[in-house]
Amino acid sequence: MSISPKFLSGSQIRQTFLDFYAQRGHKILPSASLVPEDPTVLLTIAGMLQFKPIFLGQRTAESPRATTSQKCIRTNDIENVGRTARHHTFFEMLGNFSFGDYFKKQAIAWAWELSTEVFGLPASNLVVSVFREDDEAFAIWRDEIGIPGDRIQRMGEEDNFWQSGPTGPCGPCSEIYYDFHPERGDNIDLEDDTRFIEFYNLVFMQYNKDAEGNLTPLQNQNIDTGMGLERMAQILQKVPNNYETDLIFPIVQSAAEIAGIDYHNSDEKVKVSLKVIGDHIRAVVHMIADEIRASNVGRGYILRRLIRRVVRHGRLIGIQGEFTVRVAESAIALSEAAYPNVRSREGQIKAELAREEAQFLKTLERGEKLLEEIVDRTKQQANPQISGQDAFTLYDTYGFPLELTQEIAEEQGITVDLDGFERAMKEQQTRAKDARQTIDLTVQGSLDKLAETIQGTEFVGYAQLSSLAEVEVILVDGKSVEEAAAGTEVQVVLNQTPFYAESGGQIGDKGYLKSGDNGDGLLVRVDDVKKESDFFVHFGLVERGTLKVGDSITAKIDNSGRRRIQANHTATHLLQSALRKIVDDSISQAGSLVSSERLRFDFNSPRAVTAEELQKIEDLVNSWIAEAHAAVVAEMPIAQAREKGATAMFGEKYGDVVRVIDFPGVSMELCGGTHVSNTAEIGLFKIVSEAGVAAGTRRIEAVSGQAVLDYLNVRDKVVRDLGDRFKAKPEELPNRITNLQNELKDTQKHLAAVKSELAIAKSDQLLSAAEAVGEFKIIVAELGDVDAEALKTAAERLQQKLGNAAVVLASIPEPDKVSLVAAFSPEVNKKGLQAGKFIGGIAQICGGKGGGRPNLAQAGGRDASKLQSALESARNLLVEGLGN
Per-residue confidence at 434, pLDDT binned at 50, 70, 90? Predict the structure, then answer.
């Protein structure tokens, strides 16, 4: 039954698409997280990403056909958001997928049926494109669907050859465009986005691309399609852009109401800002819902930048104070039916937004002051121009758009170094790219190439510490080889392994691969193990013999190291449970590290954990250890595990069946790591430190088992050493040290007084050397190694004695450290000279900075060799400024 092309809501479009393909044998699957399993990309950028291992042949599909509505984020063209009709950071991709089942003919026929008969788009408004070499797709569209040849466009690789990332599955594609103005005739230019919009992309997944760019045919031909939900909504709802659809416009309206403006009556600049807010708020709500936290690296950096862009555009349209939480409520309400986790994590979303916004508003205020200082300083230059680095610092650190800096500069009659800004931007983009936590792409590429000939690694390490295995792959420098001699660093893939691969915060096991019982057989030392897709990659060194593909070897882990890792991993579970009981039951994990030496646990908390609470946590964990709780390990459907109350580990990805580690009455978590069979095996637990690592995120470091004894031995040695030095018993040390600290403070105060008196004595000698400039007196001098505080006292005293005067003093209190002070009388200020701005400019000559009040200011520098030049510049500026 077809639907007439009347208005359809975004929710109706989504459900209609899913139902259409479900009726044609496709299994409806939920959207994957925005945090992808694929380590080659930072965020989920396409609907096919969760199926990449299936397309590569590394995992078997649960169903030969699937359909999804996938939430995605792309930030590669973020500057176009709000400026064009359809660029977004966050969007939903409706997709239908075939895993070796149907191919081009069926995919094209269904796409046409859905578009024309179900959504009711007139055939006369549709144009299609195909890859220039894909004669098969061209023929299907023309001969079987019946589209005239002149409405089928052949396009190149850039437009019609799709790939998910630097490596992986790829293939030619065919796109369907909607023509908003068919009356303009047959002069078709698909680049004209005022007339055409691409809304459905059919990817014919035929190849795998390796790290060198080589294409090899996939074992199975697959279909991967994507229909942009927002774009189809624009077409069916007959609005001029995606932002005015019911998927986004309520968010835009909420921001406009807060600003006290009307979207439709606003100028283009205001509309752009409102669209940016609408788009970015959707993105950050879903990112935080998927447990991404704001930070300065990787995904966290993207989240922080998006939040700051929202705040910045709010300021541009006149919003003062905090507003993001109110706008976020609109985004949550719009999304919760399709994505319930945005409502279930509402508290975390709003807390993160409020924290980041408050922090950034303070930063913006500092940025406005900095811009004022930069403008004042620049105006004193011969050719006044704000440097590219200064403009970029304002943009990147303080959130000022380049255009705003340019506007303010232009008002003051100065320019901005745009080339320098672009250089700084490129350097920052390189740093952001380097911040990505990705695997060795050369290793991944080689594994992708071999995926069709070998099976994934079977992990037997829960029950076995050693196992017989066969060598399936040897990689040297990312290249597949048949053998590797002694002294070679290798990456080895086995058909099965007892080695745990780094995951969920737990490090990989160490150990050996060996053959032969005598001492001259093969020996490979394994230093680390990582999991890439379904393969366990053993990183190590061939210490003896020659390792060959096909070898039968014994894989044996370091048992002692494994026991310590197990103790620390179980201790993190107990620690999280204790935190929730004693501090706040809403605490959630934000990261972890489990090694053989220690454990680190990051968690979300708006405040520090008190010393008293830390002691209670430590005592509670140790009581659970002493009570000898046995572990109950079980596999069960994820829905059943969540129903039982199991806690998910941060960063872990879960299938339909999950592994649950349960210490009844104490802790129950979904976890693939290795654990003790009884809490008594942990031995002892000791918290080493608690500190903040980011806004709203705390970190506890601790040790357990044998490591506690090592920790206490080190501390005992320190205490005994201090006791010997101070000739005191351990219990007497605190008082002894307190007394010494008090004596030191008294000595320092006395020394400071002596230095101040010396500085005053030295400065008094300068009175007779004061230089007259018109009605003013000036002194510019160096006072040796006088410290900053004494220098300030001397400058104030000289200015007061001279009256109508300007005093600039400098010293070198330490090697490579310069101190500067300026003291100006009110009459000097009336001549336009401000001590703060003046001394800041002088300090720059010495590689420093500073500032202060108009009458008194201090600054510092690092380059003492430039001090005389700085003082000469100070004198010249004073003579020039006061002599007029």
Answer: very low
